[in-house]
Amino acid sequence: MIADLLTHQRLSSYLTAANDDLDAALRLYEWNTNASAGTLSLISMTEVIVRNAMDAALSQWSQSRYGDGAWFTHAPLDARGCADIAEARRRAIKRQPTEVHGKVVAELSFGFWRYLTASRYLTSLWVPALNTAFPHGHADIGQRRKQVEQRLQRLAFVRNRAAHHEPIHQRRLIDDVADAIAVARWISPDAAAWIGSKEPVTATYRRKPQLGDRG
Prior knowledge:
Layout: H1 2-6, H2 8-17, H3 22-66, H4 71-74, H5 79-92, H6 101-107, H7 110-116, H8 122-126, H9 141-163, H10 173-187, H11 189-198, H12 201-206
Helix pairs in contact: 2-3, 3-9, 3-10, 5-6, 7-9, 9-10, 10-11
């Protein structure tokens, strides 16, 4: 039966939530699958907006300080960041010999961009460059960094769970929607409006099966 194929271990959190009602647990599992797909869609929209805004800010900083926009070369990244850049550049030229800036940006993970908002980069990157990627954020750029980092951390966490088919049925996914829209709004009100009008998570969240629901 399908429960054996999914395994008891994978279904355990759903069975607990459904009071060991297997049919209800399977409905919740199916809902979780749809919610995960919607969450990945939400964060994909947010990620592209965030990384492009941060890339533009870093390029402008690099151009102003070093005379060229190649921030990949000039940014004072830690070992992990440098390794991420090197791997992204390697993948970017895998099918074409000439490096294209936008391709490298696309190869960098959501986690990479989130780490750039960490406190370790406050003086080296956030103050001179990255705070300008979020012009509609908190007036204090220190608080702005903290707020951006907190929301990107939460979005990265739920994205990873969704991408690895882990349970997200216990999360208030509408809070994740609010985080995504907030980050986008700090970049551009238009971006926030676009995500708010297109994201599928809110509608899916409203269809979450309730315990005792036999429908």
